[in-house]
Amino acid sequence: MVSKKITVIGAGNVGATCANILATRNIVSEIVLLDVKKDLAEGKAIDIMQSATLLGINTHVKGVTDDYFATENSDVVIITSGIPRKPGMTREELLGVNKEIVVSVLERIFKHSPKTILIIISNPMDAMCFLANCAFKVLRNRVIGLGGVLDSARFKYYLSEALQVNAHDIEATVIGGHGDTTMVPLVSRATYKGTPVTELLPKEKLDEVVAATKIGGATLTGLLGISAWYAPGAAAAMMVECIVNDTKTILPCSVMLDGEYDQYAVSIGVPVVLGVKGWEKIVQLTLSKEEEREFELSVRATERVNRILSGQKVY
Known about the structure:
The chain is α/β, with parallel strands linked by helices and 315 residues long. It has 2 domains: 2-147, NAD(P)-binding Rossmann-like Domain (Rossmann fold, 3-Layer(aba) Sandwich), CATH 3.40.50; 148-310, Lactate dehydrogenase/glycoside hydrolase, family 4, C-terminal (L-2-Hydroxyisocaproate Dehydrogenase, Chain A, domain 2, Alpha-Beta Complex), CATH 3.90.110. Helix content is 42%, strand content 23%. The chain has helices at residues 13-24, 40-49, 52-55, 95-112, 125-136, 147-163, 203-214, 216-224, 230-244, 289-311, and strands at 2-9, 28-35, 60-65, 76-79, 117-120, 143-145, 170-171, 174-176, 183-185, 191-192, 195-196, 249-258, 264-275, 278-282. Strands 3-2-1-4-5-6 form a 6-stranded parallel β-sheet, with helices on both faces. Strands 7-10-11 form a 3-stranded antiparallel β-sheet, covered by helices on one side. Strand 1, helix 1 (13-24) and strand 2 (28-35) form a beta-alpha-beta unit. Helix 6 (147-163) runs antiparallel to helix 7 (203-214). It is globular and about 50 Å long.
């Protein structure tokens, strides 16, 4: 365990799951769980702490209601605030209401933890990362969107189902926007125990896997009646572990580009090295011609959402 303080904004399904995973893995010394709903975060924090002797938890978890003083000097802040998707909704349809929520949260977070590293989960996630960078003039290495980590986990799952193998033996990456039509699963780079999946599955089956990956979130929203939470919470906890332990792990995350991949002033998913300073390096991949085209389309679609933010005079 490292002596680090983590704040999770939003004690709903995703935030509480993330806090619980961080606690059970004893990654950090202190977790603050904050929510605007009275007593919700307090109750979930107590519930987690009452499992301490059962699960060997040494992390201290504290719940607070809208008390940003309790978050002071957080090393990492995870933002899950906002309304979740409901069946039939796109992530982009959440833009207006979640924008207002995230701006309010960021203002108070930076007041108490000006040097914190942000992990943003709130949707539309790429736009919220763009907002944080532009509206608050944050060093770009300290704003990290979750999307690609989660989307890649879903890609690996669907590949493992198609191959009938353990997902742990699959390497696969999703780049681009965190949206049903904007993510780019990199089939050309996906492998099972070092063997390209293109040698193991026919194109028709790979096309099915890609399609399932792209609507992975919508599929779960349809089944559950609300956005998924186990995998998003686990993805955020994994990112925290990479940062606080300075592991230099390469993960696909939404970050602000400044010439990388020949793109500027857009936050979108690309592989980055995660460490104690946030994202420390952007990894330039060689893409197939089709993947280059899809990534370019993803960037353009993401920029259109960003222009809506600009038109709303958020910053």
